[in-house]
Design brief:
mainly alpha, Serine Threonine Protein Phosphatase 5, Tetratricopeptide repeat, 76% helix, disordered N terminus, 131 residues
Length: 131
């Protein structure tokens, strides 16, 4: 097999792989990344949504407000995927952010929503275990 044929096959395989998982759009702000993540979630493209939220964690480590949003969305995706143990752990870690003197500086909606979803997880896991 010629090297050029092998290279063309590799390029094709990589191209098809990126189509399967989705292409990340360019974004400059955390708000754009959150919007793109939401759009991916709305289409049940969880891998793509997780990639956007992971970019937020990577690019904006000092922005506690957007970190809370990204961490909540990541945990919520795992909840939707019925990965309840993972989601519970992630939600509890998010609540840990609120257990600081700077809690008042964080967006309160994620703490409220996290507590609601944790109750739903507990209810679903109790039903599943027959308790």
């Amino acid at each position: 097999m010629k090297l050029s044929t092998l290279a063309a096959g590799l390029v094709l395989a990589l191209g098809l792989g990126s189509c399967a998982t989705g292409q990340l759009r360019e974004a400059e702000t955390p708000e754009e990344l959150i919007q793109y993540g939401q759009e991916a979630m709305d289409r049940n493209r969880y891998k793509l949504a997780l990639a956007y939220y992971d970019l937020i964690l990577e690019r904006f480590p000092g922005n506690d407000s957007v970190l809370c949003a990204a961490e909540y969305e990541i945990a919520f995706i795992h909840y939707k995927q019925k990965k309840y143990d993972l989601a519970r752990t992630e939600f509890q870690a998010l609540l840990g952010r609120y257990d600081t003197p700077d809690e008042e500086l964080l967006p309160s909606q994620f703490k409220i929503l996290t507590n609601i979803v944790l109750e739903q997880i507990d209810s679903r896991t109790r039903k599943k275990s027959g308790r």
